[in-house]
Amino acid sequence: MSDQITVAIDAMGGDNAPSAPVEGAVLAAQNGQTRILLVGDQERLETELEKYDTKELPISIIGSEGKIDDSEAPALALRQKPRASIVVATGLVKAGSADAVISMGSTGGTMAAAVVILGIIKGIERPAIGGPIVGAAPHQTILDLGSNIDCKPSQLLGFGVLGSVFGNVLLKIDNPKIGILSVGSEQSKGNALTKEASALFSKSGLNFIGNVEGNDLVKGTADVVVCDGFVGNVLLKLVEGIGTELGLQLQSALSGKMPPEVVEGILHELYSKNNVVDSRGGGPVFGVNGISIVGHGSASPTTFERAVDLAKMCVETRLIEEMNEQVPRVMALASE
Amino acid sequence: MSDQITVAIDAMGGDNAPSAPVEGAVLAAQNGQTRILLVGDQERLETELEKYDTKELPISIIGSEGKIDDSEAPALALRQKPRASIVVATGLVKAGSADAVISMGSTGGTMAAAVVILGIIKGIERPAIGGPIVGAAPHQTILDLGSNIDCKPSQLLGFGVLGSVFGNVLLKIDNPKIGILSVGSEQSKGNALTKEASALFSKSGLNFIGNVEGNDLVKGTADVVVCDGFVGNVLLKLVEGIGTELGLQLQSALSGKMPPEVVEGILHELYSKNNVVDSRGGGPVFGVNGISIVGHGSASPTTFERAVDLAKMCVETRLIEEMNEQVPRVMALASE
Fold first, then answer.
1. What is the band of A281 on the pLDDT scale with cuts at 50, 70, 90?
2. Which of B215, B230, B254 lies closest to A238 in CB terms?
3. Do A274 and B218 count as a contact with CB atoms less than 8 A apart?
4. Fewer Cβ neighbours under 10 Å: the N or C end of chain B?
5. Which string of DSSP letters, residue by residue, matches A197-252?
6. pLDDT at residue A330 above 50?
7. Residues of B (115-144) whose Cβ lies below 8 Å from A
8. ipTM for the complex shown
């Protein structure tokens, strides 16, 4: 492996595939520091790439057959489509031909491919997804956001240590503060899951600050907030819904009171500040033994470009190596 | 009982007691349709009432001793303080001397007093609190919002039928649509609790529309949304936190771009539209056999006035009688 980092992009994944991933690959390759492997239907990708002047760019096409759709059961689809784009792309990471894989396709498919092909970090049971959801706290990592619906206390602890390593290594937060999302700050407040998890965190050696509440997500009280994927997913979708609604309300309240371009500017400023879910292009599949970045299906070319940057940072900061070192140690401490 | 409705107010409850409840009682009594019993420390209430011209107003003081604080364990406090304001006030309803009780004091204390003194509606295990939390859907009743942390499926069903009767009788919604808050619209999506509850709802005869998601709370897809109190409480506090934060962001984005009084007007308009939690002054303790209204400790005099209006509507629409009729029937259907 040379110093230049290689990123495999699932060019068939996402609402706007293959045009958005191909254009995103061109943008990322133009930055000059990353080699891109576009994985997908060879002919379609060649046609798409011809729209750009790529002679000098480090972009290659890797052929694959078919894709895994959102509507498919991921585990079954993996077996039925061993040459699907996400399977081939993730396989490139396993084989050492790529340092990271990026997909805006089926989240379940991306996670399943990562688990089966890259394996799971020791001490973790199932992977998770996470990231910031509230604009006022853009460096807060909340996990899980929907992949683990019914959780055991040890899973919350796993989310905590994965989020802590991510916050420390990638976001440069010194000894990240970890909170359990609950219904009161006292340790006695919470449901059966959070109370048991609290006991595990207390033994973990992590910088555990106890329970945090819904409004603490806005204040950024903790750097890492753990919750089961049921709660996380409801929160994520609620915040998205509120953002859309308040944008409309604001537009209506301001229109006529100032020039349209000023209204546009204010709306754009507030939108950028608050729509943090996609601010990094996506997030890592937390807990798998390799770098797999997953993002929204609605990804634009610049979203892919940001995701390539994130992948590059994950490689350069040795995120996976750090997780492999810290996670088993913390999980062992808490189970003593 | 005459045609005039009598409401007992816990005049020692709330951050601004007894001044706010006393002023609120005066405002409500001036409307001329409700008799108010102010329950609390006799001398303090007399002193407070002297500030107003109450000669012609139907306000009486009922003496009590002490109050239940937020910091106390409600059940224990009830036994230790049998003459506390909320106990005496709730007792007036039980005795038929009042038609409803209102408290902005300890929610736990108010609920415990209601359960012990008024009893529980047949088919319900524990009472719940609920109401709208998103401004865009002000007639949506979400419950539970924090009193039932770990729930059984039958409790969610209970919330559903209580919310349905409330929506129908009080909010005049014909056959209210009931949704279970979950992580996907398909019935197969959800946690163990929501999946089991879904099966119960399907047999209930209620207007059950299946799962709703976080963004549906903004759209008002369902008239009644059920969730366990853990999820509801996290949502409630998150929405409050986001509201505060976005108000500050907006103020900063607008200031300098238009006259201060116009900025104030816009902020006020958006705040009023979105701060729906207190729009009715409070909400009923759902599931108890009598009208007990509980609201935020920060209640102002006009909050008390609105709560009296709500209490009056609950009496006039025969809310409790309807619940007593419908709840046992639905719960029996679902358990067949």
1. confident
2. B215
3. no
4. C
5. HHHHHHTS-S-EEEEE-TTHHHHT--SEEE--HHHHHHHHHHHHHHHHHHHHHHHH
6. yes
7. 134, 136
8. 0.92
Asked if B73 has any chain A CB less than 8 Å from its own CB, the reply is: no
Judged by CB atoms closer than 8 Å, whether chains meet at A234 and B213 is answered as yes
Q: Are B10 and B21 in contact, with CB atoms under 8 Å apart? A: yes
Query: Residues A122, A181: one domain?
Result: no
pLDDT at A1: 43
Residue A326 domain-assigned (yes or no): no
**Does B63 lie in the same domain as B9?**
yes
A328 part of a folded domain? no
Contacts of B182 in chain A (CB under 8 A): 230, 234
Claim to verify: residue B34 and residue B123 sit in the same structural domain: yes
d(CA B99, CA B107): 19
Q: Regarding beta strands A283-284 and B34-40, do their DSSP bridges make them parallel or antiparallel, or are they unpaired?
A: unpaired
Nearest Cα of chain B lies from the Cα of A236 at a distance, in angstroms, of: 7
- To the question of pTM greater than 0.80 for the whole model, the response is yes
Contacts of B245 in chain A (CB under 8 A): 134, 136, 218
pLDDT digits (tens, 9 = 90+) for A266-280: 888 888 888 887 788
Residues A258 and A283 placed together within one structural domain of the fold: no
| Most distant CA pair in chain A, distance | 65
**Domain limit, last residue, from B227, B253, B276:** B276
Query: Cβ of B214 under 8 Å from any chain A Cβ?
Result: yes
Domain membership of residue B220 (yes or no) is: yes
Residue A138 is assigned to a structural domain of this protein: yes
Task: Kindly tell me if the per-residue pLDDT of B276 is higher than 60.
Answer: yes
Q: Which of A150, A241, A274 sits opposite B218 (nearest CB)?
A: A241
Q: Which domain holds residue A257?
A: 133-276
For A120, the 3-state DSSP assignment is strand
Is B181 part of the contact surface with chain A (CB cutoff 8 Å)?
yes
State the Cα angle at B11 between B5 and B15, rounded to 5°: 130
- Chain B residues with beta carbon closer than 8 angstroms to that of A238: 134, 214-215, 217-218, 235, 238-239
Q: Which amino acid is at B130?
A: G
Amino acid identity, position B251: Q
Closest residue in A to B186 (Cα) is: A71
Does B218 contact A245 at a Cβ distance shorter than 8 Å? yes
| Residue A154 pLDDT greater than 70, yes or no | yes
How large is the average pLDDT for residues B219-226? 97
A299 neighbors A281 (Cβ within 8 angstroms): yes
Share of chain A above pLDDT 90, in %: 83
Interatomic CA distance for residues A113 and A101, integer angstroms: 11
| Number of separate domains in chain A | 2
To the nearest whole angstrom, how far is the Cα of B28 from the nearest Cα of chain A?
Answer: 33
Q: What is the CA radius of gyration of chain B?
A: 20
Q: Which residue of A has its CA nearest to B151?
A: A191
Shortest Cα–Cα distance, B122 to chain A (Å): 26
**CA–CA distance from B316 to each of B3, B5, B60, B278, B291 (Å)?**
10, 9, 22, 21, 11
Which residue in B227, B241, B273 is closest to A217 by CB distance?
B241
Percent of chain B, pLDDT > 90? 83
Residue closest to B213 by CA, chosen among A148, A215, A241, A70: A241
